[in-house]
């Protein structure tokens, strides 16, 4: 089965075409367009290229297209990308303005251009469907909650992949299989030995998720991807009173505050240097105190959330690092795990230094009771796998 993954950024369109079988995935083609203002011409050109390169005879020979949709009102999971998905994206377009309109347009383009091709949406919130109500709710009045204001969580595709891959690495096939089947069969009952994982997705956008027996119990991101850890240029967690107070004292509107918190905050706002972790580390090494503060605040926030999940899960078996910073920043990984030997967490400095540049491996010491691992992110592949499972199971049932 060939599966096209369409990645619609706010200003870019990237795609990958995979050949999917039960045994695995192979990449057939990939490409993309930058500085995109309209998706339809890009999709047309991509289809032309895929035909010209001989990957498909006609556009309609694609078996499925997968979309990594971000946030839907009253809808989550891995579902057919139909009118229900378009309505859900529309319902929260104010909360995810950079993503929801883009995905709605992309889905409509495919609907019109190749109506016979199966379209599947994998929501970034899907992995958090089974989080306890006590952890998913904010303490707000009922009419606010009726609007759908709750802790949603994001990076679901990435953290779910980590849940599955981590279980494979520690030879817990019972848990890995539970994760593989999660979106098609639900979690079911689990009576095996507990597997407690903290997954740190640290990139341009970052989050920490607690995963018990393959299922997320909570995550650092909340209602929108605006919350949790300091992000590249977005604020992360902020006390709700800060916004009315800053508006009043700085004489700015709520819209101006929103722009400052979504574009000029996070690592960029704290460091005053850059939104890129590499530049910040370089500036900190050269003595820039604000850059050092940005790095330290990021580390502190990762430890804050990891500590919370450690406590909630009653212990820990694996910490996993992924995405640009998690896969490459050896120093930050060491800082996150520093001084935790009494909790059974001990990094092997040589192993830590050796795992970077897209490598997978264990970076904890032999006598660390908690395994610390690095797992490269591959979001397109994760989506292709979930789409394949969704379509294959749907076909098996029909
Ligand atoms: P996105 O969330 O946009 O997909 P990535 O997962 O690619 O982003 O992560 C981007 C982040 O990873 C940037 O902040 C970048 O500085 C950081 N990064 C990439 N390589 C390194 C490195 N060698 N050391 C430290 N940080 C790195």
Outline the secondary-structure elements:
Blueprint: E1 2-8, E2 13-21, E3 24-33, H1 39-52, E4 64-67, E5 78-80, H2 83-91, H3 100-113, E6 118-122, H4 133-136, H5 142-146, H6 156-169, H7 173-180, H8 182-185, E7 196-202, E8 206-212, E9 215-219, H9 242-250, H10 254-263, H11 266-271, H12 277-285, H13 289-313, E10 318-322, H14 323-328, H15 330-336, H16 349-354, E11 361-362, E12 371-374, H17 379-397
Helix pairs in contact: 1-3, 2-3, 6-7, 12-13
What report would you give on this structure?
- The protein contains 17 helices and twelve strands.
- It has 398 residues and is an alpha/beta fold.
- Strands 3-2-1-4-6-5 form a six-stranded mixed beta sheet, sandwiched between helices.
- It has helices at 39-52, 83-91, 100-113, 133-136, 142-146, 156-169, 173-180, 182-185, 242-250, 254-263, 266-271, 277-285, 289-313, 323-328, 330-336, 349-354, 379-397, and strands at residues 2-8, 13-21, 24-33, 64-67, 78-80, 118-122, 196-202, 206-212, 215-219, 318-322, 361-362, 371-374.
- The chain folds into two domains: 2-123, ATPase, nucleotide binding domain (Nucleotidyltransferase, domain 5, 2-Layer Sandwich); 156-374, Nucleotidyltransferase, domain 5 (2-Layer Sandwich), CATH 3.30.420.40.
- The longest helix has 25 residues, at 289-313.
- Helix 1 (39-52) crosses helix 3.
- Adenosine-5'-diphosphate binds at residues 203-205, 232, 276-278, 323-325, 328-329.
């Amino acid at each position: 089965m060939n599966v096209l993954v369409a990645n619609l950024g706010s200003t870019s369109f990237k795609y990958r075409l995979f050949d999917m079988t039960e045994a695995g995935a192979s990449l057939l083609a990939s490409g993309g367009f930058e500085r995109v203002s309209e998706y339809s011409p890009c999709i047309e050109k991509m289809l032309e290229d895929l035909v010209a390169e001989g990957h498909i005879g006609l556009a309609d020979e694609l078996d499925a297209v997968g979309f990594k949709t971000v946030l839907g009102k009253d809808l989550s999971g891995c579902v057919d990308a139909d009118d229900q998905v378009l309505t859900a994206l529309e319902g929260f377009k104010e909360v995810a303005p950079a993503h929801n309109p883009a995905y709605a347009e992309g889905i409509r383009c495919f609907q019109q251009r190749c109506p016979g091709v199966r379209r599947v949406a994998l929501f970034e919130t899907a992995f958090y469907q089974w989080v306890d109500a006590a952890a998913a709710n904010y303490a707000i009045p009922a009419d606010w909650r009726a609007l759908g204001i709750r802790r949603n969580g994001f990076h679901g595709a990435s953290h779910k992949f980590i849940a599955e891959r981590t279980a494979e690495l520690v030879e817990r096939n019972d848990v890995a299989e539970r994760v593989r089947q999660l979106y098609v069969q639900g979690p079911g009952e689990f009576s095996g030995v507990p597997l407690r994982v903290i997954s740190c997705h640290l990139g341009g956008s970052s989050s920490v998720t607690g995963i018990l027996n393959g299922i997320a119990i909570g995550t650092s991101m909340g209602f929108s991807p605006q919350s949790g850890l300091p992000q590249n240029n977005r604020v992360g967690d902020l006390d709700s009173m800060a916004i009315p107070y800053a508006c009043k004292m700085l004489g700015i509107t709520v819209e101006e505050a929103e722009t400052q918190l979504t574009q000029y905050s996070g690592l960029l706002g704290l460091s005053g240097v850059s939104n890129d972790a590499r530049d910040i580390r370089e500036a900190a090494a050269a003595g820039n105190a604000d850059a050092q503060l940005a790095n330290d605040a990021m580390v502190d926030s990762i430890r804050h959330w990891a500590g919370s999940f450690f406590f909630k899960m009653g212990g820990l078996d694996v910490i996993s690092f992924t995405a640009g910073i998690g896969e490459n920043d050896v120093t930050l990984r060491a800082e996150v795990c520093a001084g935790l030997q009494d909790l059974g967490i001990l990094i092997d400095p040589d192993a830590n230094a050796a795992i970077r540049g897209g490598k997978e491996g264990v970076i904890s010491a032999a006598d660390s009771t908690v395994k610390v691992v690095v797992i490269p992110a591959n979001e397109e592949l994760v989506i292709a796998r979930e789409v394949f499972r969704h379509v294959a199971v749907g076909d098996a049932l029909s």
